[in-house]
Amino acid sequence: MKTKLTFLTFLLFGFLNIKAQCEPTITSPRLGAIFAEKILFCESEDEILSTTQTYSSYQWYKQEWTWQTPNNNPWEAIPGATSQQLTINGGDQLYYFKVQVTQGACMAESAAVMADGYVYGLPAMMSTFVPGTYEIVDGGVAHVCEGAPVKFDDIFPVVYGPHTWFKCIPTTVAPFTGDPCVIPNVTGDTYTTSEPGEYGFYACTEYCPNQCQMLDPFTFVKLEYGNWEFCGNLGTGEVKAKENKLSIYPNPTAQFLYIGKESEEYKEVTIIDMSGKLVLKKNDHQYRQAIDVSHLAAGNYIIVSKNGKGEVYRNKFIKK
Q1: Is 4 a member of any domain?
Q2: N or C: which end of the chain has fewer CB within 10 A?
Q3: CATH number at residue 195
Q4: CB-CB contact of 162 with 204 (8 Å)
């Protein structure tokens, strides 16, 4: 009986060992650095794929990425790719890779990994204004009330590391010491200002520190501060209350809210809570359309309505 148990144990461990050998796993230095099962490249670097175990034979395959699901592009054997390691480079972006291995009577394929080009995402900037304190007057130019803050964010903060922020368009493609356009001591992926200027940034990718990009100068945002017609008191950022405030009904309301000025369309309607947070925004709104506020917490709110003529109205309402 003891001999049989020993033999069965040997067979079991042998089976488990063969099973483990039949489950190849791909690894590489940058695999999973940001996204699981994806590799992010630097422009001038190669990347080495390898299996975590040794096998008798290897054949690497690649498949071109597509938006479509499922991916119907064919898997193609890579000529000469028959060793444990496979070197890929920037030209292999947006491809999937897998390896087929054999070990004795065992033959198996690894799960696929993707060589992603997301690290190459060109820098893009998002501008956040306080509702009612600004007006876009031309492409890239905004009139802003005195003292009202404007926040700029890198849309791809996960890609980029240190930033250099500018208050005017620099004359070079990279910052230099003494550049008057550079905002000193600001290196994060967000910047808030309440001063006039033309804002943008230069940044280097976090995982490829030598790979840097300048925001396209055409997408820099120019802020012009002043006591514009739509502004309130200096530095408050509040909208100037017009004497002919709109009729807002029902008020209080539990669900629907109507703007009561007939035959008028509103280019923009925003609702702000008492902390100044934007909680709802609608474009191209008509007075007869109901605004559903049922999802808002009970409390006091400000609704700012801007008509097609650029006139801005400010009202308060209560959400029950």
Answers
A1: no
A2: N
A3: 2.60.40
A4: yes
* The total number of residues written for the chain in this structure: 320
Q: Range of 279's domain? A: 248-319
**Cα–Cα–Cα angle for 248, 258, 283, rounded to 5 degrees:** 110
Ranges under pLDDT 50 in the chain = 1-20, 233-244
pLDDT of residue 274: 65
Per-residue model confidence (pLDDT) at position 29: 87
CB-CB contact of 82 with 57 (8 Å): yes
Q: Look up residue 176 and give its amino acid.
A: F
In this predicted structure, what is the pLDDT of residue 75?
A: 97
User: What pLDDT, on a 0 to 100 scale, did the predictor assign at position 67?
Assistant: 80
Give me 57's structure tokens.
């034979």
CATH of the domain at 269: 2.60.40.1930
Rounded CA separation 59/55 (Å): 11
- Give the chain as a DSSP string: -HHHHHHHHHHHHHHHHHHHHT---EE-TTBTSSSTTEEE--TT--EEEEESS--SEEEEEEEE--SSSS--SPPEEPTT--SSEEEE-GGGTTEEEEEEEEETTEEEEPPPEEEE-GGGPPP-EEEEE-TTSEEEEETTEEEEETT--EEEEES-TTTEEEEEEESS--SSSS--TT-TTB-TT--SSEEEE-S-EEEEEEEEESS-TT-EEEPPGGG-EEEEEE--TTB-STTT-PBPPPSSPPPEESSSBSSEEEE--TT-EEEEEEEEETTS-EEEEEEEEETTSPEE-TTSPSEEEEEEEEETTS-EEEEEEEE-
Please state, in angstroms and rounded to a whole number, the distance separating the CA atoms of residues 220 and 206: 22
Within a domain: 238: no
